[in-house]
Design a protein that fits this description.
By secondary structure, this protein is of the alpha/beta class. It is built from nine helices and nine strands.
Length: 216
């Protein structure tokens, strides 16, 4: 299975969750791998792609396709550097990557533009079988998470939602949010890092065959 990892917003913890899934599955004997084909705000030594490469036991070149310095959407960051992103070449690069499972981390959220007329959503539907959504744990996540789940479900199977909780955030409040989101969407919802075993259990226990499918 190939999973596209998207977020309800930027900075919600996609890379932390993707690293944990990849490392946890590899420790259990799976040939899991994570890639980040596009990254903006690129600072060598502090990149998401570098973390994913280490977790996957791969080189940076194998884990990343194109990067830009400005912390903007890929479309805007490329324009600043007078470059354009070739969506066909991007899709081909992603399609050549393999893993058991393969996690493909997007840049930002579901509607972030890659180039004119192409969003992260378009890339996800071309290169992945299902989508994992990562959201923040605290206030506002119910609205952001439900909107993202509903948007993704219009186009792709939703594997589940992971709420990434920071150490200073209440676990009780986070679980309250998780329960509300699950009740309204019927999506699987777990809290990271508290429910890491449950999250990894999705993949060990036949979860690959049970995503929430598109609406309609």
């Amino acid at each position: 299975m190939r999973y596209f990892v998207t977020g309800t917003d930027t900075g919600v913890g996609k890379t932390h969750v993707t690293v944990a899934m990849t490392a946890g599955l590899r420790a259990a004997g799976r040939a899991a791998r994570a890639i980040k084909p596009l990254e903006t705000g690129w600072t060598p030594g502090q990149t998401d792609a570098e973390q994913l490469a280490v977790a996957s036991g791969r080189s940076l070149a194998e884990s990343h396709w194109q990067h830009f310095g400005a912390p903007r959407s890929p479309k805007a960051a490329a324009a600043i550097e007078h470059q354009t992103i070739d969506p066909a070449a991007l899709t081909t690069w992603c399609a050549r990557c393999t893993g058991d499972p393969l996690f493909i981390e997007g840049a930002g959220g579901w509607a972030v533009p890659i180039c004119s007329g192409i969003r992260m959503a378009d890339l996800a539907t071309r290169v992945a079988d299902a989508v994992i959504i990562v959201g923040r744990a605290g206030l506002g996540t119910v609205n952001h998470s439900i909107l993202t789940i509903e948007a993704v479900m219009q186009r792709a199977p939703v594997a589940g939602l992971v709420l990434s909780r920071r150490p200073d955030e209440s676990i009780d409040f986070t679980r309250e949010n998780a329960e509300e989101i699950a009740a309204q969407t019927s999506a699987r919802v777990v809290v990271y890092p508290d429910d890491l075993d449950d999250l990894l259990g999705w993949f060990h226990g036949g979860f690959d065959e049970q995503p929430t499918h598109p609406m309609g």
